[in-house]
Amino acid sequence: MASLSSCRVLLNSNSTGSSSSSSSSSRILPKNALRAVSCRQDSPYSLCRINNNKTNSRNFRSSLTTCCASTSMAAAVPRAIIIGAGGRVGNALAAMNPEGNDILVKRGESVPADAPPGPIVVCTRNDVLEDIIKATPADRREDLVFIQNGMLQPFLDAQGIGANTQALIYFAVAKFGEAPTDGVTDLNPEGLTSVTGKHADAIAARLKNGNLACHILDTDAYKVRMLEKLIWISAFMLVGARHEGSTVGDVESKYSDEVRSLINELAAGTSATDPSVTFGADVADRLCAYARSVAHFPTAVKEFEWRN
């Protein structure tokens, strides 16, 4: 691992003690204060173990919300079981492991009872999730990692695995075998893909090896991101379906007022239902920016019970 004397990060923090500048986004952090939470090889930021005893704050606590870059040495990619590796996303995730030693399970097959420990990444549609959970040995269900679109939390809670690893995927794989395109935007150049839970580090390391951004978030921060993506897919798909034949880009460019109004309405309703969830005044701008990054995607209302 590269040796760093200091680290410049964007952060949301609470700190006490002296500080050289309360308004600066650059801080000298205490030794071993933080670990890498997300990685992107072309990011200008690097966050690793700090080999420096200097500190601008004796009691530094931070909730990191940004992406960090790789150092000169790539992190190891833990071995995984990938369910649905025959699909575009599953195949792409398997290709991100340079060792090539993942266990690939086809849809409809069960996780081997003697499979090695590690994450079990589920790359299938939502409508088969219950069958996959039932087909997974009971003592391995806590290792299931869910990357599907939509609001999974109530379903996972009902299955008794509400604390499992979840990931919000903001990258696209256009065709089987092609490299993923990261969903970075002009408003979020640090990327948007996020993960939380037991196997968050393993998923982030895998995506890092594929040169994709990934934020490791705590449960509360992830909840906001999950709801924001749900608002995006619900609003854009519905407005697109209303204007038959529209792509995501058409919705953003031709029906901007309509989709922005719906986004703001959904965001306000969500926050009114759960005051702990706030999106900020620029939520429509952020979601429209993401739409521009995947402008060619078609629109359709599907998986209605999960997304709308």
Structure explained in plain terms:
- The chain is of the alpha/beta class.
- The strands form four sheets. A seven-stranded mixed beta sheet has the order 6-5-7-8-9-12-13, sandwiched between helices. Strands 1-3 form a two-stranded antiparallel ribbon.
- α5 packs across α8, α6 crosses α8 and α7 packs across α8.
- The longest helix is centred in the last third of the chain and has 24 residues.
- The relative contact order is 0.12.
- The N terminus is likely disordered.
Summarize the structure.
With 308 residues, this protein is of the alpha/beta class.
Characterize the quaternary organization of these chains.
Answer: single chain
Instruction: Please give the order of strands in the largest beta sheet.
Output: 6-5-7-8-9-12-13
Mean pLDDT equals 80
Count helical runs: 9
Strand content: 5-15%
Shape: globular
Count of DSSP E strands? 13
> What is the terminal separation in angstroms?
45 Å
Low-confidence stretches: 1-73
Structural class: alpha/beta
Helix content: 25-40%
Q: What is the element string, with H for helices and E for strands?
A: EEEEEHEEHEHEEEEHEHHHHH
**Rg from C-alpha positions?**
20 Å
Index terms:
alpha/beta, globular, 13 strands, two-stranded antiparallel sheet, 308 residues, 31% helix, seven-stranded mixed beta sheet, 9 helices
Topology:
Blueprint: E1 7-8, E2 11-16, E3 26-27, E4 59-64, E5 81-83, H1 88-95, E6 103-105, E7 120-122, H2 129-135, E8 144-146, H3 153-158, E9 165-168, E10 171-172, E11 181-182, E12 194-196, H4 200-209, E13 215-216, H5 219-242, H6 248-254, H7 256-273, H8 283-293, H9 304-307
Parallel strand pairs: 5-6, 5-7, 7-8, 8-9, 12-13
Antiparallel strand pairs: 1-3, 2-4, 9-12, 10-11
Helix pairs in contact: 5-6, 5-7, 5-8, 6-7, 6-8, 7-8
